[in-house]
Task: inverse folding
């Protein structure tokens, strides 16, 4: 089995594995990639808060997402701790081309449940890609503490990925969700394929 095939099987149905050069480049830009990662965690917490505010009447959704906000903020704190203990600088937020492009794929209009489905699938996809990348970091980084750190985060983000997909299938017809999920996966692979491989970004 080729590297690509074996990776694809293990990576949450993503259609394009991360370029194998990515981890090596990342190691040379630790300050930048940790800064970018910190903001990813902050954005993950914010997006759950937005869903809670927007869909306050969906009781189960609110109850499931509320502890995830705390978890993502906990991840932010842990990334910040890694930055501080290495004497690195927590830099400015940067334009997130990956998330911008994915957000443009969100279908506008439609019913409230259609809008919810789009947001949940967007979140699921970002979790899936983050999980794939954290796995690469946990396997390939030299630093033993960071390896362990990324292993733990990989498990957590994999759980979030499943939660978002399950929530989508709870509120929307699962066949509709599955069909749209395939479209999201195809689009994400196209975005990933066109993005420059750079070591100062999680995505
Ligand atoms: Fe996280
Ligand atoms: Fe997450």
Result:
């Amino acid at each position: 089995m080729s590297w690509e095939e074996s990776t694809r099987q293990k990576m949450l149905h993503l259609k394009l594995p991360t370029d194998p050069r990515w981890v090596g480049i990342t190691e040379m830009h630790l300050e930048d990639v940790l800064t970018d990662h910190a903001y990813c965690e902050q954005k993950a917490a914010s997006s759950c808060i937005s869903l809670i505010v927007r869909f306050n009447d969906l009781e189960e959704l609110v109850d499931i997402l509320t502890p995830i906000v705390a978890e993502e903020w906990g991840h932010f704190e842990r990334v910040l701790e890694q930055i501080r203990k290495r004497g690195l600088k927590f830099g400015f937020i940067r334009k997130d081309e990956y998330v911008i492009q994915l957000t443009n794929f969100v279908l506008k209009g439609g019913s409230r449940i259609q809008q919810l489905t789009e947001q949940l699938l967007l979140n699921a996809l970002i979790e899936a890609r983050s999980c794939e990348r954290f796995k690469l970091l946990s396997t390939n980084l030299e630093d033993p503490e960071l390896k362990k750190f990324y292993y733990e985060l990989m498990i957590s983000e994999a759980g979030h990925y499943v939660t978002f997909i399950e929530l989508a299938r709870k509120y929307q017809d699962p066949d509709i969700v599955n069909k749209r999920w395939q479209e999201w996966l195809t689009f994400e692979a196209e975005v990933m394929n066109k993005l420059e491989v750079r070591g100062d970004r999680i995505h």
